[in-house]
Amino acid sequence: MELVLHVPNAISEQQAIAAILSDMDTEITTLESRRNKTKRLKQGMMQEPLTGRIRLPIEHSTVSVKTKPTVGMLQ
């Protein structure tokens, strides 16, 4: 099997390609960093209510309390 690579002859074209690839690599690194920061923030926000330091508001109008029905005595 033969592998053919086409390499541009002009140095300016090679430098332009290298610059684009370098910019893409920087962008990927930045996006990965942002994603990791967002994941850590989400994890922290999910754990805060469990610590008791932050209380979540409860709307009393939407909360229904169900009780067991009272069973009368049979005679």
Topology:
Blueprint: H1 11-51
Concise description?
The chain is 55% helix and 0% strand. The protein contains 1 helix and no strands.
Total number of β-strand segments? 0
Spatial separation of the terminal alpha carbons: 94 Å
Strand content: under 5%
**Helix and strand run:** H
Q: Specify the structural class.
A: mainly alpha
Major sheet attributes:
none
- What is the global morphology? rod-shaped
* Mean pLDDT, all residues: 82
Oligomer: single chain
Tally of separate helices: 1
Radius of gyration (Å): 31 Å
> Which bin fits the share of residues in helices?
40-55%
Low-confidence stretches: none
Description:
By secondary structure, this protein is an all-alpha fold. Helices cover 55% and strands 0% of the residues. The chain is built from one helix and no strands.
Offer a few descriptive terms.
about 80 residues, mainly alpha, 1 helix, about 0% strand
